[in-house]
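3.2 Worked example (two chains)
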Amino acid sequence: MAVEKQKQEEREKQLAQEKQKQEERQRQLLAQKQRQEEEQRNLVEEKKRQDREQARLASKTPFNNPRYVPTLAEKQKQEEEAKALALRIAEEEKAPPTKSFTSDDYKYSLTPEERQLTNSFEANKGRLPWPVEKGYIIEHFGKNKHPLFNITTENYGIDIKTSRGAGARTIFAGEVNSVINIPGMGQTVLINHGTFYTVYAKLAKVNVAKGSKVSMKQSIGTVSTDDEGNTQIHFEIWKVGANGQPFKVNPEQWVAQ
């Protein structure tokens, strides 16, 4: 009887342990189920969030503003663009027309007659007549040192000594651009030859006027004589550069020697 009772107690003990194990497995299964349900809820919430984000990005209302009125905004934008365009047009109309010269653009802005005159002038480089019938150069183009004093001066042309009462003449055909009186240089005549200009200064009298058409070796005036009895003409040649501005060239390279 005692042995049987002991066996019975042992079985009950084993059954109790088995029951505890089953209850532990039940708790583990319940906890796992709860975790799975939580994960499922998280997945559902994430999907809802993604759907909302996609809907926001796909919406045509800027800044997700439900009060936005597309037609009114578009109208305001068009009005602003129209005002900006009108302002830009007004500024362009007020701005003076400008032209920049590159390469030989200045030549192509001339009339056919002026281009022909320019080409003829260039073709005669080194063969052009002197601005006076006879004489010799007393001061050359560029830097010149004074014969008595240690002074160097810059000459933008050449100075030619000639006889008293000598006449000044054009070295090429062209049109008188201006006739002016320059202090220290006397009467001065500026003649246009397309993209070239010739300058005749230190004249006592002038017999041409602005706008006059002149031919080669035509008389334009009389060379002046100073108080010391020196009769000399100052002569320059200008060439208009690619930027539309004239610069001085050495006349000795253009007139016949």
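3.2.1 Second chain
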Amino acid sequence: MLPHTELSPELAQRLKAIVSSPSYLLAEVDTAFMRRDELRPVRFQLELLKPEMILEEENVHSTVVVYGGTQIVEAPEAQRRLRGAEVQLEQTPDDPKALRRVERAKRILEKSHYYDAAREFGRIVSSTCQTEKRCDYVVVTGGGPGIMEAGNRGAYDANAKSIGLNIVLPEEQAPNPYITPELCFQFRYFALRKMHFLLRAKALVAFPGGFGTLDELFQLLTLRQTKRMQAIPIILFGRAYWDSIINFQALADEGVIADEHLDLFTYAETPEEAWRIIATYHDHDHDRQPLGLA
């Protein structure tokens, strides 16, 4: 081919259009192409492989999953939000929505101790299990605020690694600052995110939460009910909350689940109790480093 300097102006312009055309881009760097509906199966595979490969490279052998609500924050923040709601109510005392906001803020403040408990649980698990550069029982959360932040923060307090599995949402979810940077992932697909929550899980602790927490919890219970995943301890933290939200016994009484399915999970009231349940389940000394995977 003639050198570009010898091309006519018309062909030079045509060549410029050729090399700047999206079709000329390598497929791997063509983000518009990768976002096409037809490429969804490829995106599924990438979201499976990327975290899997990085976790292998980071020597993460097993995890402890922490679920819980984004709105359950530590007490100072809950108090600040309550005060803001009270100020608004003072300005509009006849507004039922303003009164409702105050009532809800009070309930959140009452639950702020769960943030502290999740943080302490993350610290206990991480300080007990991540010694001598071992990466067993690594705390993994959804990577966002609230209880998720608390779990990652506990690992951070122990100078240990933790994982965050963030999800792309219409109202963007930012990762909390306590996640290990190399172990912070972002997903487009809930299904692949849920898979990574459970692939390496040795235990799961569900703190109080809303639709997202319930969705993840019930998927886990279904997988265990149908024996489609490894057996792990499933711990519901704070029985008073869970009993007020879900009548599990009624499901058994109605005959829609078996009585033995109620044994798929147990309850804990303190971080120490939750860790004892996990350690006992896997035959580890409660106060010592777990000796590999069960």
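3.3 Remarks
The longest strand covers residues 162-167.
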